[in-house]
Specification:
Length: 327
């Protein structure tokens, strides 16, 4: 496993890390035993960073991380997020009283004394511009409740704004072969500002595994069913904002990337890690097999210059006009 510095912090995190939305809930059936085996396999392979949120399974993902990392708190870094358990448009959700409560509840579920990276969970731009929530995070940091703080954003505009907030040390963004916009301005400016980049949804909700076809279906409790068109939250969080059938069609045209790299998933994440501005990818998983497969990204062959240009043109000519929602 290779490690990269998280912005200008002291944290060195595994370039392949993992997100825990899927094991918490919202991606169909999940089995705790399988999830814990997956977490254990990841740590055995050198993964030292996991991303979660207080709303993943109403805190269940945090509880699973507590079990998996017990006794390893100094070596395994955990990032969690807050605000979406409340009304994300209400200023009270970001008050000192509310944020302290969110933080204490996460600490309790994680069974930790400090959160390594505490992130605002996709707040509206107006909340970021108000700025009060950053003052609260500064207090929690000074008290030792959190080590660093960052923001999970939906749009490039939000990310660029956060780069002007001195205490922000990391941005979590949607970035994959179907969502290349951040490369243009956000990533180089984040690098210059010493802000780390965590890449969520690197496989576009599974589209970039190449395993779906137009007739694929998803369980009722899977966001790929109930949020396919942005019914519950930002449509970009599901299939990178693409209509499902169009996403399947576009993924089929990318099948060539798997040649010499194992499969499309490994190739898709290798493409992300080939960008020097990226700190890590945080794919999801439900079991040890999926963890094992994602770990193979680190050994996949990098892309040649001509291939990178081909993928960039593919995005500009065939993908970006089909993306729905702000990004």
């Amino acid at each position: 496993m290779k490690y990269r510095q998280l912005g200008n912090t002291e944290l060195q995190v595994s370039e392949v890390s993992f997100g825990t939305w899927a094991i918490g809930g919202g991606w169909g059936d999940a089995d705790d035993h399988e999830a814990l085996n997956g977490l254990s396999r990841a740590m055995d392979a050198g993964v030292n960073f996991f991303d979660t949120a207080d709303v993943y399974g109403s805190g269940h993902a945090e509880e699973l991380l507590a079990k998996a990392t017990k006794g390893k708190e100094d070596n395994i870094h955990v990032a969690t997020k807050f605000c979406r358990a409340g009304d994300i448009h209400d200023l009270h959700t970001y008050s000192e009283e509310s944020v302290r409560a969110y933080c204490e509840n996460s600490l309790k579920r994680l069974q930790r004394e400090r959160i390594d990276l505490y992130q605002i969970h996709c707040p509206p731009l107006a909340i970021l511009k108000d700025g009060h929530v950053f003052e609260v995070l500064e207090k929690l940091q000074a008290e030792g409740k959190i080590r660093h703080y960052g923001v999970s954003v939906e749009t490039v505009e939000e990310g660029l704004f956060c780069l002007n907030v001195p205490g922000v040390k990391a941005l979590q963004v949607i970035y994959n072969l179907f969502r290349q916009k951040p490369t243009e301005a956000l990533f180089p400016q984040a690098k210059a500002a010493g802000v780390g980049i965590l890449v969520r949804l690197p496989l576009a909700s599974g589209l970039l595994t190449g395993k779906f076809n137009e007739t694929s279906t998803f369980a009722a409790d899977d966001h790929r069913n109930f949020n396919a068109n942005g019914e519950q939250f930002n449509v970009g969080e599901t299939f990178a904002g693409l209509p499902f059938a169009k996403g399947v069609e576009l993924a089929r045209e990318l099948a060539w990337i798997a040649e010499g790299r194992g499969n499309m998933a490994k190739a898709s994440m290798r493409w992300i890690l080939d960008n020097p501005n990226i700190t890590c990818v945080i794919p999801g998983f439900k079991n040890e097999h999926q963890v094992e497969d994602n770990l193979g990204t680190a050994q996949a062959a990098s892309f040649a210059t001509a291939e990178l240009e081909r993928l960039q043109q593919f995005y500009h000519n065939q993908v970006k006009d089909h993306i729905r929602g702000p990004y």
